[in-house]
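A reminder from the course coordinator: this example appears on the midterm review sheet, so study it carefully.

Given structure:
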C-alpha cells in the first residue's frame, strides 16, 4: 500500500487532480454565501422568453417605458439567460449559490493546473498567487454573464500562450468555437478576442529583441493559420441573434459615458477599498516578475498584461476578469522572485490534502447556515409587490436596482439594470428624479407617473411628502415606499372630506 501511495505521489496526473480539487473546494468554502445581485432576475425572464417563443428578445421586455418609446434591446447576453433559466429549473434556486461558487472555483483550478510546473518549482509563491485569484474572483460572485466572460478570457489567454510557445501549435483553432460562444453569452466583451488575435498576428511578423522582449518570426504556415482563424472569428460575430447590430455594440457600450459615470461597477477602482487591492496586488506582482526575470518575455504576454491593466484601471468590474490573466502571465516569469525555499513533493501533497480537508469542513459548515439562496432585503417585500399588482399602475416609477426583480415578479417598470436600453433615453431623467433635483416635479409631470415605488428615506420621498397630490400608501419592512398620485378630482374630494371632519 505504501509503495502504491509513493507511486501516486510521483505521478503528475495525481498531483494535478489533487491540486485542482483542493483549489476548487477551498474556493467554494471561501465564497459560498447568499447571493446579492440585481441582474439575475431579468436574465431569468429573458431566458424564459426565448424558451417559450424560440426568439432572441429584441424589445425591452416588461418595460412600459421601453415599449412606449420603441427602444431597441440588443440582448447580447441572451444565451446566458437561457442557460441560467434552464439551470435554475433543473437544480432549483436554492443551489444557485453552490453553482456560482463552484464555477468560480473551477476557474481558479484551471489557472492552477495549467501551469503545474510553477507549483512544483515554487509552491508557496504560486499558491499565494492562486489565493489572490480566488479572492479577486469572489468579487464577481453572482449568477451573471460575466462568469462566462471570465472563463472565455482565461481560455483565450491559454490558447494565445500555447500558440506562442509551440512552433506548429494548432490550439489557435479553438478560438472559433470560443468566438461563437462569446458573442452570445457576453457580447459586450467579445471584441477582446479578434483584437488580440490581430495583435498576435502582427507580433509574429518580426524577428528582433527589444531589451527582454523577444519578437520571433514564425513560419508562413503558422501565420496563415492565424490569419484564417482571425477571419473566421470575424465572420462569427453576426451569429448572435442580432446579426450585424452586434458588430459595433462593444464599442458603443464602452463609449457610453453616462452609464460609466453613473453606475458604481463601471467606475474606476477606489484603492482605498481593500477589495480592489486584490487584483491590484496580482497586477503589480506580474510586472515585478517580468522586470526581474532572466527569461525572454513574449510580446503577447506583455500586451495581454497591458490590455487588462488598462481595463481594470478604467473600470472596477474588470478586476475579477483581469486577475486570472495576471496570474497566468506572472507564473511564466517567476524565476526572478523565487526567493522562498522549495517544499518537497511530499510536503506539497500533505499541504494540499490539508487545504482540501479544511475546505470541505468549512464549506459544509457555511452551507448549512444558508437559509435563503438570495439576499432579498434590498428589494420590495412580497406584500409590497402584491399591493403594486393590485393597484395595476400604468406608469410606475421605480428604482434602477429594483427593476430586474420587479420584472421577475411580473411588474412592468420604468427602468431596470439593462442600462444600455435606457442610457440614451430616460436614464438621465431617472437620475434627476431619483436625486430630487430642481426639475424633479416637472419631470414627474412630464412622464405622468401614477405610482412611485422608492426608498422611504430618500430625498425623493421627502420631496413627495410635501406635495399634496402624492400619498404614501405603504412602507414595507425593507424600507420601500409606494406613493400614489391623486388626480385633481380625488384630491379636491379628499380636501373637502378633511375639512368636513374638522
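Designed residues:
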Amino acid at each position: 500500500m505504501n509503495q502504491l501511495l509513493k507511486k501516486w505521489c510521483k505521478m503528475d496526473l495525481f498531483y494535478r487532480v489533487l491540486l485542482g480539487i483542493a483549489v476548487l473546494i477551498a474556493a467554494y468554502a471561501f465564497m459560498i454565501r447568499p447571493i446579492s445581485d440585481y441582474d439575475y432576475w431579468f436574465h431569468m425572464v429573458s431566458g424564459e422568453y426565448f424558451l417559450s417563443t424560440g426568439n432572441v428578445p429584441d424589445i425591452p421586455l416588461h418595460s412600459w417605458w421601453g415599449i412606449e418609446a420603441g427602444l431597441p434591446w440588443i440582448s447580447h447576453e441572451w444565451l446566458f439567460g437561457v442557460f441560467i433559466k434552464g439551470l435554475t429549473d433543473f437544480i432549483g434556486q436554492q443551489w444557485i449559490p453552490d453553482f456560482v461558487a463552484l464555477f468560480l472555483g473551477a476557474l481558479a483550478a484551471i489557472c492552477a493546473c495549467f501551469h503545474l510546473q510553477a507549483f512544483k518549482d515554487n509552491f508557496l509563491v504560486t499558491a499565494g498567487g492562486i489565493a489572490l485569484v480566488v479572492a479577486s474572483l469572489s468579487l464577481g460572485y453572482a449568477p451573471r454573464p460575466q462568469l462566462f466572460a471570465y472563463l472565455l478570457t482565461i481560455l483565450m489567454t491559454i490558447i494565445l500562450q500555447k500558440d506562442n510557445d509551440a512552433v506548429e501549435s494548432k490550439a489557435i483553432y479553438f478560438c472559433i468555437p470560443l468566438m461563437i460562444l462569446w458573442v452570445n453569452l457576453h457580447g459586450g466583451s467579445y471584441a477582446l478576442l479578434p483584437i488580440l488575435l490581430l495583435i498576435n498576428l502582427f507580433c509574429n511578423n518580426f524577428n528582433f529583441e527589444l531589451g527582454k522582449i523577444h519578437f520571433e518570426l514564425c513560419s508562413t504556415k503558422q501565420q496563415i493559420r492565424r490569419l484564417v482563424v482571425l477571419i473566421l472569428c470575424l465572420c462569427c460575430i453576426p451569429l448572435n441573434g442580432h446579426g450585424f447590430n452586434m458588430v459595433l455594440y462593444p464599442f458603443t457600450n464602452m463609449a457610453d459615458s453616462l452609464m460609466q459615470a453613473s453606475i458604481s461597477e463601471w467606475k474606476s477602482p477606489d484603492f482605498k477599498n481593500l477589495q480592489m487591492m486584490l487584483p491590484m496586488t496580482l497586477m503589480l506582482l506580474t510586472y515585478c516578475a517580468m522586470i526581474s526575470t532572466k527569461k525572454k518575455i513574449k510580446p503577447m504576454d506583455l500586451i495581454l498584461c497591458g490590455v487588462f491593466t488598462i481595463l481594470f484601471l478604467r473600470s472596477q468590474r474588470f478586476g475579477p476578469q483581469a486577475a486570472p490573466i495576471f496570474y497566468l502571465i506572472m507564473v511564466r516569469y517567476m524565476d526572478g522572485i523565487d526567493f522562498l525555499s522549495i517544499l518537497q513533493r511530499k510536503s506539497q501533497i500533505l499541504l494540499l490534502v490539508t487545504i482540501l480537508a479544511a475546505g470541505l469542513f468549512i464549506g459544509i459548515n457555511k452551507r448549512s447556515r444558508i437559509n435563503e439562496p438570495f439576499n432579498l432585503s434590498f428589494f420590495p417585500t412580497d406584500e409590497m409587490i402584491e399591493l403594486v399588482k393590485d393597484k395595476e399602475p400604468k406608469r410606475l416609477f421605480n428604482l434602477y436596482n429594483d427593476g430586474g426583480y420587479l420584472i421577475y415578479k411580473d411588474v412592468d417598470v420604468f427602468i431596470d439594470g439593462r442600462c444600455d436600453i435606457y442610457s440614451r433615453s430616460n436614464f438621465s431623467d431617472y437620475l434627476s428624479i431619483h436625486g430630487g433635483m430642481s426639475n424633479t416635479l416637472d419631470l414627474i409631470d412630464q412622464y405622468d407617473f401614477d405610482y412611485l415605488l422608492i426608498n422611504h428615506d430618500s430625498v425623493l420621498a421627502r420631496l413627495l411628502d410635501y406635495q399634496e397630490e402624492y400619498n404614501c400608501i405603504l412602507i414595507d419592512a425593507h424600507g420601500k415606499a409606494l406613493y400614489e398620485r391623486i388626480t385633481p378630482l380625488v384630491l379636491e374630494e379628499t380636501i373637502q372630506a378633511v375639512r368636513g371632519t374638522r
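The mean pLDDT is 89. The first helix runs from residue 2 to 10.
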